[in-house]
Amino acid sequence: MVTLTAGVDELRPPSCQGLNCSEPQKWQLVYLFAGLGFMAVGSGGIRACNIAFGADQFDTNTEKGRSQLKSFFNWWYFSFTIALIIALTVVIYIQTNISWFIGFLIPTCCLALSIMIFLIGRNTYISLKPQGCVFIDMAKVINAACRKRHVPVVPTANSFYDRASKESENELLVLRHTDRFKFLDKAAVIVDPNSELNAEGVAKDSWRLCNVEQVEKLKCVVGILPVWLAGITCFITMEQMNTFGVLQVIQSNTKVGNFMIPPGWMGLASMISLAIWIFIYECVYVPNASKISKKEARLSLQIRIKIGIFMSILCLAVAALVETRRRDLALKEGVFISPLGIGFFLPQFILAGLTEAFAAVSVMEFLNNQVPETMRSVAGAIFFLSLSIASYLNTLIVNVVEMLSGLHGRKPWLGSHDLNQNKLERFYILIAGLAVLNFIYFHFFASRYIQSYEESKRRKTVLETRLDSGFVDLPEKKP
Length: 479
Hints:
By secondary structure, the protein is mainly α. The chain is 65% helix and 1% strand. The protein has helices spanning 2-7, 26-55, 63-97, 100-120, 134-147, 193-196, 212-250, 266-293, 301-333, 346-370, 376-405, 424-469, and strands at residues 255-256, 259-260. A two-stranded antiparallel sheet has the order 1-2. Strand 1 and strand 2 form a beta hairpin. It is globular and about 85 Å long. The N and C termini lie far apart (56 Å). It comes from Anisodus acutangulus.
């Protein structure tokens, strides 16, 4: 549907004549938004479940399965990077210089091919049996905890309804009780065994009595939220380069020699800086630092996220300085396209890539490791939801800034189709201020949840080491 808007003249308004553009008709907007709506629904299903479904195809109980799973992740990121490079080079170049219709047709054909490949292999996939909806379980825990809000929590094993899932084949994967967010523990407190449990010891009403594992799953999600909120502000920074950053380049000198650089290619600088840092970190820093310290030397998630937030502040500060220079040159020459070269915009896009390399990747790692394996698709959904929320918040902030800055007859900072008539650098400084507040919030509050996660991870590593060494005797499974 989106491709047809570029190929069929009747589905879009006439081309702009300079800054004079005709408004689209309502039915044209309805058609366009319908196509974008289908795209959003499809992306929502694919992004959250793609990696999780692929990981289900491997038996992690065997050495071969674990090795294949690592290869799967490597090939997934490799194909993802190749797709981004093609999208940001070939497709954007075709859209900018040849045809928007052909540029949209290429990803349309790729999606059609992916559907065919997926259907061809439908009989070979391992599809795990669904075990209920985790969101319904969360609603049950909240409901039960609210109903029992006046019930005191007795910290004994017998006071909780701890009935492990019958579907779990590995007892080590069953979540056990933790001491955080104790209010939610009330959902699993057995007040009256006679009225709440049947003869087999199973809860009669799952909306009034939940098991410990259900409670712990909700605790995992609640423990994610503070760090998740800090990540949203980082994504707002990255969003600026995808929108206003590209607009800056459009109104600048994009000619390098005899070649005109498409403004959309600037995203390559972010992606390349991200890839270079990951290569340096994984292949240079970690191996050499580990040799020197005689142990695995990785930067903690806490430090990496702080560095990412600092990079976002620096990115916006640099963008504000460059925008001031770009607009001043354009106004001095009295031209729409500023003579400022495209190379001056590279630092802000590189810093945006480093923000993603440090903060975004760390937030994704935290989300996926904080939840049990059965909730990995939920973690993926939460991560991509933060990207969506950041986009909506960015739109809201732009509208609010445009409205408030234009009060009392003043000229608004944003809103004009000509960036030379805007005060974009002030908007960048405002977003940088939000990033500073985000750094303070993360340092004094959200980072505590990172610490508790890393401590539990270290305890888990010690336990796994003892298990591999044979120093821990596990209870035999009941027949």
